[in-house]
Specification:
The protein has helices spanning 12-16, 24-123. With 124 residues, it is mostly helical.
Length: 124
C-alpha cells in the first residue's frame, strides 16, 4: 500500500502498489480491514487444508487396514501350508519306517529260512 501523502502527482509506486491512498492516515484507516480479510482467508484455507488432511488420512488408514487384512490372510495360508508340509513330512517318515521294518522282517525271514534249510539238510 502506498501512502505518500498530500501530493497531487502519481508515482511509479502508486501504479505498482496493491492499493494507493492519498495519506498515511487513510492507509492506517484502511489497513485493519485488509488484515481482517486476509486473516479470514487464511483461516478458511487452513480449515480446507485440515479437512483435506483428515480425508487423506482416512483413505490411507482404510488402505492400511486392507493391507493388514491381506497380510493376515497370507499368514494364515502360510500356517496352513506349513501344517500340510509337516503332515507330509510325517507321512514320508512313516513310509520310510515301514520300509525299514519290512526290510528287517525280510532279512529275518531269509536268515530263518537259511537256518531251517541247514537244520533240515543236517538232519536228512
Amino acid at each position: 500500500m502506498v501512502a505518500v501523502g498530500h501530493t497531487s502527482d502519481r508515482s511509479l509506486a502508486d501504479e505498482c502498489a496493491y492499493a494507493s491512498v492519498p495519506t498515511p492516515t487513510a492507509a492506517a484507516e484502511r489497513l485493519p480491514a485488509i488484515v481482517a480479510d486476509a486473516d479470514g482467508a487464511l483461516v478458511a484455507e487452513a480449515a480446507g487444508v485440515a479437512g483435506a488432511a483428515r480425508s487423506t488420512q482416512a483413505v490411507a488408514g482404510s488402505a492400511l487396514e486392507a493391507e493388514a487384512r491381506a497380510i493376515d490372510a497370507t499368514l494364515a495360508q502360510l500356517g496352513e501350508a506349513e501344517a500340510a508340509r509337516s503332515e507330509a513330512d510325517a507321512a514320508v517318515m512313516g513310509a520310510r519306517r515301514a520300509r525299514q521294518v519290512a526290510l528287517a522282517v525280510g532279512v529275518v525271514a531269509l536268515v530263518l529260512s537259511v537256518v531251517l534249510a541247514l537244520v533240515w539238510m543236517k538232519g536228512a
